[in-house]
Amino acid sequence: MILASMRNVSKVFTDTRNGRGLVALNGIDLDIKEGEFLCLVGSSGCGKSTTLNLLAGFESPTRGDVSFKGGKVNGPSPERGVVFQEPSLYPWMSVLQNVMFSVQGDEGKERVAMEYLRMVGLDGFAASRPSDLSGGMKQRVAIARALAMGPDLLLMDEPFGSLDEQTRRKLDNEVLRLWKDGGKTVVFVTHNIEEALMLGTRIVLMSASPGRIEKEWTLEPGWPRDLSSPSMVMLKGEIIGMLQACACANGAAPARLVTIGE
Amino acid sequence: MNGGKAQFEFRPETARLMGKNAWNAFLGILVVVLIWWSVAEAMMFLRGVPFPTPPETFHAFWQALMGADVHGEGIFAHTNASLQRWGQGYLIALVLGLTLGLAFGTMPRLHEVGMVSVYVFQMIPGLAWIPIAMLIFGLGETATVFIIVMTAIPPLVINTAGGIREVPEVYTRVARMSGKDDSALFMNVLLPAASLSIINGMRIGLANGWRVLIAAEMVVGVALGLGFSIYQSRYSLDFTASFVSIMVICMIGLTIEKLLFVSMENRVRNRLGLDRED
Description:
The structure holds two protein chains of two kinds.
Chain A: E1 2-14, E2 20-33, E3 37-41, H1 48-56, E4 63-68, E5 71-72, E6 80-83, H2 95-102, H3 109-119, H4 135-148, E7 153-157, H5 165-182, E8 185-190, H6 193-199, E9 202-207, E10 212-218, H7 230-245, E11 257-259
Parallel strand pairs in A: 3-8, 3-9, 6-7, 7-8
Antiparallel strand pairs in A: 1-2, 1-4, 2-11, 4-5, 9-10
Chain B: H1 12-47, H2 54-65, E1 69-70, E2 73-74, H3 75-106, H4 108-123, H5 129-137, H6 141-165, H7 169-177, H8 182-211, H9 213-216, H10 226-236, H11 239-272
Antiparallel strand pairs in B: 1-2
């Protein structure tokens, strides 16, 4: 079943000062299947984050349709939980209060919040402040908060990009576990090919100038993945090869600049 | 990392730190007094003017505390009058300034249109408000309060609006994704996030209003007030009396700053978790 989809979506960001536009996405068609773990990969500037923001409802498409569960996406909603790249916990609230903030409904917020904190292993830090936590712990709280909304779709925008390798691997596995246990659909944006190969059921490669989908690959389920197996090595080589071939990797402008009215 | 405790603990180092701060403050004041004294002696020597020295001023201050008149009234009467005018002015400025600041901060179109006037008002020096005050209100308490209000409002608006606009976009996105409506976003996210800026604006506005007392009390029409007393030396040539009033103004300003704002700022910083040590 298709949970969300983008049909012929283009997104242009306009510089209001000089009327020039940045074509971030050009004619994207993407279906998000229920229950899958989709990894969006590509170098910086190819539109991965824009795609995520469109799915979440933070942005609306310049052209085309973004739909969720059959209806048009009109804005952000608790049905589409997001884990952001940058620190997003409120520093004046405790860890527990941060998670409670996103719990839906009027009753039992504390109980639900504690449950999700337990899921990410941070129930002992419920009374702590975000500033007391390490980067990895903060992102775990952010994940708990997103899940506590009870979303159907979990959107993660390079959530572990600023963390060290070890923490990242640990958190990758935690996300994988949460996905398997919870039966959610995950869209995971990353520029780290290995991370994508370790996690995803499907990998979509995007490229820039203008932002579009280059190719997609479906992977066999079965974790943990063995990256040293011949099929994996070949796949990794293919993806990296395509990444390097695309214009954005060669240091060209991240997207085509157009003058509005062209 | 302690697992779960978010309390601020009072350790022996804190007591030492507080003692150190008090000592630093004392040293700072001492430096100012010494500079003052040197300038006083130099001016008396070079220009033959009766520049009040620290000992003269402290002596006169002491006598004023004991009940001697300063420019015709007791020092407490002057102080009381000034505090009342300034208190009224600041309260009005607070209400107007915060309201406007919050409005400008949350409504971008209003901000575009309105902020230019605020910046213009901010540029007008305290003294320049005198003719405007006199034309609108004539002489009297209202004119004085008006001047205090007009000088205290701009920093309140600017810092409040700025604080709201500088709230990171991701904070707003988290709230929207969690289904929060405009008022929940405002009360639970925008206000707390902007609180440091807002307090800063309150602090600057307070100082502005207090510093303009001299100009403001020029139009008050009664011979009462610290600012009035300072200005009177122009006619009475009793400079010592003026210096006593200047001292009182500085002392009150410092006390309010230390008592009110430093504690408020510390509380907010604590809530925001900006005072954590690793």
